[in-house]
Design goal:
homodimer; about 220 residues; Glutaredoxin; Glutathione S-transferase Yfyf (Class Pi), Chain A, domain 2
Chain lengths: ~220, ~220
Amino acid sequence: MNPTITAFERSPDRGKGQARDMRVRWALEEVGQPYGVRLVSFSEMKEPAHRALHPFGQIPTYEEGDLALFESGAIVFHIAGRHSGLLPDDANARARAIAWMFAALSTIEPPIVDLGVAVLLERDRNWYAQRLPLVEDRIRGRLGELAERLGDADWLDGAFSAGDLLMVTVLRRLNGSAILQEYPVLSAYVARGEARPAFRRAFDAQLAVFTAASPD
Amino acid sequence: MNPTITAFERSPDRGKGQARDMRVRWALEEVGQPYGVRLVSFSEMKEPAHRALHPFGQIPTYEEGDLALFESGAIVFHIAGRHSGLLPDDANARARAIAWMFAALSTIEPPIVDLGVAVLLERDRNWYAQRLPLVEDRIRGRLGELAERLGDADWLDGAFSAGDLLMVTVLRRLNGSAILQEYPVLSAYVARGEARPAFRRAFDAQLAVFTAASPD
């Protein structure tokens, strides 16, 4: 039985693949696991039926038999644990790849989400223009450290892992900003992720949802 | 051989146990694993020797034989995988407990960190007073949903798990604010966590570092 995930009925980024279902789709494509998608509207996401699956009323969720999961990081980890290809077999290398999963979501993503929150919710405030450089500089601090660690390696720690998958999707949230281009090492890293056939299949699948919902 | 973790030489919260080493200490105490602590100063944290362990120049790190880890979530997960007591044996229950680990760090902690960043870095800005209620309301949104899900249960999903451990430490970062008290369900949840003997031992250990560094 194939798992079912949820995704936005209408992608707020107009099919750029920045919503968190992209991570789960990509992981499923990397391991070759077919899946179903149930689309939910913004209002459905906040209703009790969806909140039973996701306490914070968001997407994605993951259902597989008796198991229901939320949190994209946990879902990617679950997929990586069930299949080979996303986490190394060696115990130490596996623990380090998991550290990069947490780093992507708890160290790199929060300042990037802050920027999104500022743009989305504080653009009309009189402090917006003055505060924006502070928010961007906090992102630059993290990206500089990440670029330094990555250096001229292809991936964060040996072979491509779920840590890279999450990191690339987190960095892609900056696609609307020019900040990422200030770090050529990271732009090239994101491009390597996007060039993977599994990424392309996942990207095309989420884009098809947006295109179908917006016939023109 | 016991693992060694790193912690602040001088706790910025004056021994309140809000730094991220507390999570790792608590996990180690829950499973009964003795550990060593290496204290690092703020300047040492940013030097190459420490950055080799932690790319973002922070604490805690975790060293055990050939393995070096960073990210408190990943370290707690590693400890939970090596010992029993922090994650259920049943595969589905285990996946759900891991989802709560990610929820604590990627859904609940970021708006709480935002508040800390505002207080620490934007207090002197002319927008501080106007913006603070927006930041606090974003926290309230998450806490309301979390309280709703927890309801009258003791822990987030069955028995106490690493998900609860991380969630309690994340909520404790609000101890300097009155927001947590608006959610009696969550205050009581944090108090249940703090009442665990392993929490007390971990708390006393980090407090002893602060007390020793500040004899008066």
